[in-house]
Amino acid sequence: MDFDELPKKIPVFPLSNFIMFPGTTVPLNIFEPRYLQMVNDSMKNHRMIGMIQPKKSGDLKNPDLYEIGCIGKITSFNETEDGRILIILNGICRFRIDSEVKSEKLYRECEVKYNSFLNDISKKNNDIKFTDLNMIMENMKKFFKKQGYIVNLKDLEKKDLSQTLNDLSMASPFSLEEKQILLESLDINTRKEKMEQILNNYIKDEFENTTIQ
Q1: pLDDT tens digits, residue range 59-102?
Q2: What is the DSSP letter of 159?
Q3: From CA 114, how far away is CA 93, in angstroms rounded?
Q4: For helices 176-184 and 161-171, what crossing angle results, to 10°?
Q5: Out of 58, 101, 104, 134, which could bridge 64 as a Cys pair, Cβ 3.0 to 4.6 Å?
Q6: pLDDT at residue 155 in the model
């Protein structure tokens, strides 16, 4: 998809502790009336939805939003007998919220800009290799095990490096704020460094907590 094809006004789906990256695919189970309306409206238009994290501030039903999210395109749409909608969303490009649009719709809409994230569309090559991820993979295994998660990280090596880091960022049981830091990292090298910092902090905290007498 070309940069010029991305819509400047989009419906946004605030979902806490959830991030989506360009090139990733996520299934969503839609059942709230406002988001059923959002998906149905999107299917009639550009089939795109902006995924974004809500902040812990603002009204409970209308929380403040982080500035940066990721727009995705609906590539699969199925209605269930009990009224739910099951969709698959393919991440395309990150965006920055410019302003929120006032409307009578049940869901929220925003004017957005993509110009800070043109590399998401161009898929510019990077200069780091899978061997550079060895420490991340080892620390990730320790972290997942500590959290009670069982994950086959070897499957990730079948994907390209950018998608591997993005999948790890999405799947990891990091905090809302930590996931947002990874999403906002402008390039893959910065995201790799931020993930290393986050994992090192967890490993360090675990070591200190187990050695204090």
Answers
A1: 877 899 999 999 999 999 999 999 999 999 999 999 999 999 99
A2: S
A3: 7
A4: 160
A5: 58
A6: 61
Architecture of domain 3-122: Roll (2.30)
Q: Which two tokens stand for residue 35?
A: 């988001």
pLDDT of residue 68: 97
Radius of gyration of the chain (CA): 18
123 contact partners, CB below 8 Å, separation of at least 6: 23, 162
- Dihedral, CA atoms, 96, 102, 107, 111, nearest 10 degrees? -20
- The residue extents of the domains of the chain are 3-122, 130-211
Residue 213 pLDDT more than 50?
no
SS3 8: coil
Tell me the whole-structure pTM to 2 decimals: 0.83
Q: Is the dihedral of CA 51, 52, 58, 60 positive or negative?
A: positive
Return the pLDDT at 134.
72
Helix (H, G, I), strand (E, B) or coil at 142: helix
- Within 13 Å and on the Cβ side, how many CA atoms surround 147? 17
